[in-house]
Amino acid sequence: MDDPEHRETRRRLLELAGTGSVIALAGCLDMGANGTPGAPLDDRPVDWCLDMLDDEVPEEEATAPSIDGIERRDEDELDSKSDAIYECGARAGDQCGNCTYYIDDRTGDGFGACTEVAGQIRSVDWCALWQPREKLGEGD
User: Fold this and answer.
1) What's the structural domain count of the chain?
2) Which DSSP symbol is given to 103?
3) What's the half-sphere exposure (Cβ side, CA atoms, 13 Å) at 75?
4) Domain around 12
5) Per residue in 124-140, pLDDT tens?
6) pLDDT digits over 48-62, tens only?
């Protein structure tokens, strides 16, 4: 039972099982077409969600501070989504909802705002102005 041919067959079976596990794990990690974790599987453009976001934000969010207490800039000083390189979806775990500039949804419409970018903001998106939260972990 412990002959060399049997050991070789068993070794080959274990190699195949390991390879299959790696392939299955890659599928569970949501590897997109370009191999990036979390990349869209449907090849949507990075701006696919912009049509659902209003240019105006409710007064409750326009006058509210960010989740780290940063005051929102004046409306005419805010960057456009285009200038901020706003993308629909997170980037490597960074997203508006964990950014120091994000203003939580205060009206129940599912959208928040930003102290730096004009219009409604989805917590699950990202832009080039993203900065980590300063107060993360302090009771949040």
Assistant:
1) 2
2) E
3) 10
4) 1-43
5) 999 999 999 987 655 54
6) 999 999 999 999 999
